[in-house]
Design goal:
Number of domains: 1
CATH class: Alpha Beta
Order of helices and strands: EHEHEHEHEHH
CATH architecture: 3-Layer(aba) Sandwich
CATH superfamily: HUPs
Radius of gyration: 16 Å
Number of strands: 5
Largest sheet: 5 strands, parallel
């Protein structure tokens, strides 16, 4: 049984994330989508409980996918959860450069864990959580970019789209 972890802040979860989740779930026996709880970065739009709730609602129906929270080193979370693979989504070459450094560091700290890069589907390659928050805050509709669970909470936070 191969367990994998797909880590991120998921603030908010968007369709690019879901694309990577669904495709990874077809590859691995068990996929844990691990939401980072970084106490030193208190600038998230949604708190950890809200992000976990959004994620759990969005992955409902994917039998081998679970949501969890982690703090600290990802490789330590992998060790504790028995994961042998870290899944990282890539949108563009700029993502690869940053992710490659992190993958090498993780491998140095825990050689038993491999990193697998999954290219986000082209249709989601321009989507980022940062841009979604900006667009929603400015009153534009993001319903084609995020799952319903994220959309509902964005509209609760910023109001319905005005543009």
């Amino acid at each position: 049984m191969i367990r994998a972890v797909y880590p991120g802040s998921f603030d908010p979860l968007h369709n690019g994330h879901l694309d990577v989740i669904k495709r990874s779930a077809r590859i691995f026996d068990q996929l844990t989508v691990a939401v980072l709880h970084n106490r030193q970065k208190p600038t998230t739009l949604f708190d950890i409980e809200e992000r976990l709730a959004i994620l759990r609602e969005a992955i409902d129906g994917l039998p081998n996918v679970e949501a969890a929270m982690f703090e600290g080193l990802l490789v330590e979370f992998c060790r504790q959860s028995g994961a042998r693979v870290i899944v990282r989504g890539l949108r563009a070459i700029s993502d690869y450069e940053a992710e490659l450094q992190v993958a090498h560091l993780n491998r140095q700290m825990n050689p038993a864990v491999e990193t697998l890069f999954v290219m986000t589907a082209t249709r989601w390659s321009f989507v980022s959580s940062t841009r979604i928050k900006e667009i929603a805050q400015l009153g534009a509709n993001v319903d084609k970019l995020v799952p319903k669970a994220s959309l509902d909470r964005l509209e609760a936070r910023f109001g319905p789209p005005r543009v």
